[in-house]
Amino acid sequence: MVDVLAAPQQAKSDTALRTLVLISIAHWVSHFHLLVLPMLFPFLKAQLGVGYIELGFALTVSAVVSGLTQAPMGYLADHIGARKVLLIGLAVGGFALIMLGVHLSYSWLIASAVLLGLANSVYHPADYAILAAHMDEARMGRAFSIHTFAGYAGGAVAPAIVAALVGVTGGLGALIVAGAVGPLVALVLIAGGLPDASAADREVDGVHPPKQNIVTPALIVLTAFFTLLSLSNAGIGNFGVVALMGGYGASFSSANIALTAFLGFSAVGVLAGGFLADRTRRHGQVAAACFAINAVIVFAIATLNLPSPLLTAAMAMAGFLGGVIAPSRDMLVRDAAPPGAAGRAFGIVSTGFNLGGIVSPLLFGWIMDQGAPHWVFGASVVFMVLTVLLALITERSPQGDSEEAEARVLQS
């Protein structure tokens, strides 16, 4: 009898593990692709004869497209199937980079940015819809943390991989090889049997849950929170290397090591944050504390000419603290989402990342063109302080909505 009962449980566990691994691989690709163009800024600037503000405009275009399509992709993920949406996104993102490698020009750069923005809009709605449908409730925070860790890891290794590809194949070859990763991973997901998540999965005895208002006050506050998170990190992630080289006398290699430390320890912090997310409801307070310390560290980087070892250590600590909050951030969204609307909820709040992505490339590109690289870090400090203040609001808003919902369930 014990074996009979254990077999379905083991099968469910194996399916959940396989799903988490496959989704995490896809998320790795999404963050890797996001940093391919910024890591090639020196090459693109020289080949295209443009300034950093023109290159930043390409990232803004990508963010605008992703922001406009994020919520619609959440709708598609909830209604036609998150698996289909995710596979198409991987293929489109890969094609965008391959296309630019074959036809290098500024107009093709903008076209590639449009397709990259469209591809990027699918990952959060599709990934989280599948995870919410297939992960164990008691381990949801850790599942989110592993998924986010994979994305951070993709970004962390992007500088080294792109630099290696440029050394072996040149800038154009780097674009083509990096792009080919997308469709290859899509084939891996198909071969691995990635499960789907759609409206049909939420039906009980053929009856679909009633429609609910998805745009709640809690999700609006979380969207603003995501926007500030994006602005806090985008300057360092996209312009950190050129800022350290231009304003601090850092070499290309030492600047890349510092950025890799920032991104790599962000990934480590995400794993630590997963355990916190499963053990506390004070997610907003965790975010506020981490970003308050981060603001102090980044302020030191902005104002002091740190030697290379200390710079790398400071960047690593800032990355770690930034990563710790990510699973708690995702749990706030998941708790605030109406039943059966995880794809749309994550699509809406992830628009905040895109709103930040629209502003940050132009802002930080303008800062670099004005010859003020120190303000890449200084502006990040300002956004971190604002993030701390809003984190304390998110602590109350989503949790309050959750408690009201629990009270209604008890009364009924």
UniProtKB/TrEMBL annotation:
Please indicate if the UniProt record lists Secreted as a keyword: no
Q: Where are the transmembrane segments?
A: 20-44, 50-69, 81-100, 106-123, 144-166, 172-194, 214-236, 256-277, 286-304, 310-326, 346-368, 374-393
Any one GO MF term held by the record is: transmembrane transporter activity
A GO CC annotation given for this chain: plasma membrane
Please state every residue range assigned to the domain named Major facilitator superfamily (MFS) profile: 19-399
Pfam families listed in its UniProt record: MFS_1
Protein keywords: Membrane, Transmembrane, Transmembrane helix
Q: Could you tell me which Gene3D superfamilies the record lists for this protein?
A: MFS general substrate transporter like domains
Q: Which domain of life is it from?
A: Bacteria
Q: What is the official name of this protein in its record?
A: Sugar phosphate permease
Q: List the source organism.
A: Bradyrhizobium erythrophlei
Q: What are the leading ranks of the lineage?
A: Bacteria, Pseudomonadati, Pseudomonadota, Alphaproteobacteria, Hyphomicrobiales
